[in-house]
Amino acid sequence: MTTEIDIARLAEMIVQHRKALGVGVREAAGQIGGVSASTLSRVERGNLPDLDSYMRLCRWLDVSPTYFALEAASGSDAPAPEATMPEKIRMQLRSDPLLSPETKKALLTMIEVAYAAAKAGHLSSESQV
Amino acid sequence: MPQQKQDTSAQNRKSKDGLLRGFKAEAERIATRTRSSVGKSPWEACPAQSVARHLGFPVFPISHLVTLLRAEELGIVGSIEERTKDLEHLLIETSGVHATVLELDEYRMIFHRDTSSPERVESDLMHEIAHILLGHEGCYVDPRSSFSLPSISKQMELEAQWLGAALQIPERGLFALVRQGYSNEAIAHRYGASLQQVTHRRQRLAIDTRVARGRL
Predict the structure, then answer these.
(1) pTM score, whole prediction
(2) Which helix (H) or strand (E) holds B177?
(3) How near does any CA of chain B get to the CA of A74, in Å?
(4) Cβ-count burial of B96 within 10 angstroms (0-12 exposed, 13-18 middle, 19+ buried)?
(5) DSSP bridge partners of A89
(6) Which of A15, A44, B95, B182 could staple B186 via S-S, CB 3.0–4.6 A?
(7) Would an 8 Å CB–CB cutoff place A76 in contact with chain B?
(8) Is ipTM strictly over 0.85?
(9) In 10 A of CB B133, how many CB atoms?
(10) Which residues does chain B have within 8 Å of residue A124's beta carbon, measured at their own beta carbons?
(11) Sequential pLDDT tens for chain A (129 residues)
(12) CB–CB of A58 and B78 under 8 A?
C-alpha cells in the first residue's frame, strides 16, 4: 500500500482557513509557528512541505496528519482515521469580554484534549476530581 | 404635529438593576429547589460541584487535562508540549478565562481555572450553573472556520449573576443568619463565599432594612 499526500486539498484548505481568519501569509506563518512565510506561500502554490512543516500545518488546521492521505487502491480495509474534534461543540465561557488570539487558540486545544479525554473515559462523573 | 408616544412598556417591565420584574423572586425559587434537590437547606453551604454533577455536568480543573496530556493517555497525535503550553496559558489570570461549560457531541463537562481562590471557583461555577438552569444556550463553535465567540446578551449575564448569587447565598438563609447576629465574615465562611459577595448580596437584598422591620 502506498500513501501520498493530497497536496491540492492541503493547499486549498490552508488558503481558505487563512482567509477565514482574515490574516496574510506572514501572520498565518506566525500563528502556525516554525513555518516561514515563504514555506507557507510555497505550500499554498501546491508544493509539498517537509514533514515537520506538514505536522505544524495539520495542527493549525485542526486535522489529523492522515486527513490528507491518498491511499492507492490496495483492497485495504484499514479503518478511517478517528476524528480529533467533535462534530458538535457547544461552549459557554465565564471570561473577560475580549479574548486574545492566544487564549482562543488555547480554548481550541482545550476542546480537542477534553474530547479525547472524554472518549477515553477520563471525564465521567465517577472520575470527577 | 402630534407628539410621539414613547414606548415605556419594556422599561416598565424591568427593575432598576436591569432584571425583568418578578425575576428575582423566581431566581430564589429556582435556587431553593435546586439546593433542595442535592439535599441542602438555605442555611448551609451548597457545593457547586454537587449541583453541577446533579445536572449531568461533572466538574474538572483545567490542570486535570494537563495531567492527562502529559501522561500521554489520550492517543493524541502531534505536539504534546505545544498543547500543554496552550492549556497552561488558560491557568493564568491574564488569559481572561475563569470557567467553561462544554458540550462535545454527547459529552458534557465544566472546567474551571484551579489557580483561582476557592471562593472564586465556587462563584464561577455557580454562575455557569445558573446559565444552565436558565436554559441560556452557549455558542456553537466550528473550529475549522474563524473562531469567534458570539456575545452572551447583557440580560442573560445579569440573570445568571443574580441566580448564581442566590444559589450560593440564598436570601432566606442570609436573612436568618443576619437576624441571628452573624457577621459578614462568619456568613462568608459558612457559604464558602468571599466577604465581598456577602456584603454585596446583603446590600442588594436590603437585608438590614428588612431585619429591622422584622420581615423577610
Answers:
(1) 0.70
(2) helix B171-179
(3) 25
(4) middle
(5) B104
(6) B182
(7) no
(8) no
(9) 21
(10) 58
(11) 445 678 888 888 898 888 878 889 999 999 999 899 999 998 998 888 887 888 889 889 888 777 787 654 444 444 444 557 787 888 887 776 677 788 888 888 899 999 999 998 889 877 776
(12) yes
List of residues 6+ apart from B39 with CB closer than 8 A: none
The helix (run of H) or strand (run of E) holding residue B203 is helix B195-204
- Subunit contact B58:A105, Cβ cutoff 8 A: no
B76 backbone φψ class: left, alpha, beta (φ>0; ψ -120 to 50) = beta
Which of A64, A85, A122 shows the shortest C-beta gap to B143? A85
| Residues whose CB falls within 8 Å of the CB of residue B95, separated by 6 or more in sequence, listed in order | A99, A100, A102, A103, A106, B89, B113
Which residues does residue B100 pair with via DSSP β-bridges, in sequence order?
A93, B111
Helix (H/G/I), strand (E/B), else coil: B139: strand
Q: Could you tell me the pLDDT band of residue B142, with boundaries at 50, 70 and 90?
A: low
Nearest CA in chain A to B157: A94
Return the half-sphere exposure (C-beta side, CA atoms, 13 A cut-off) of residue B5: 3
What is the model's pLDDT at position B2? 44
Strand arrangement of the beta sheet that strand B107-112 belongs to: B59-61, B107-112, B97-104, A89-95, B139-140
Residue B155 pLDDT greater than 60, yes or no: yes
Task: Give me the residues of A, 32-51, that contact B with CB < 8 A.
Answer: 33
* Cβ-based neighbours of A48, under 8 Å, separated by 6 or more: A5, A7
Find, among A64, A12, A112, A67, the residue nearest to B147 by Cα: A112
Q: By the CB < 8 Å criterion, does A9 face chain B?
A: no
State the DSSP H helix or E strand holding residue B166, giving kind and residue range, or none if neither.
helix B154-168
Name the minimum distance, in Å, from the CA of B6 to any CA of chain A.
32
Amino acid identity of A34?
A: G
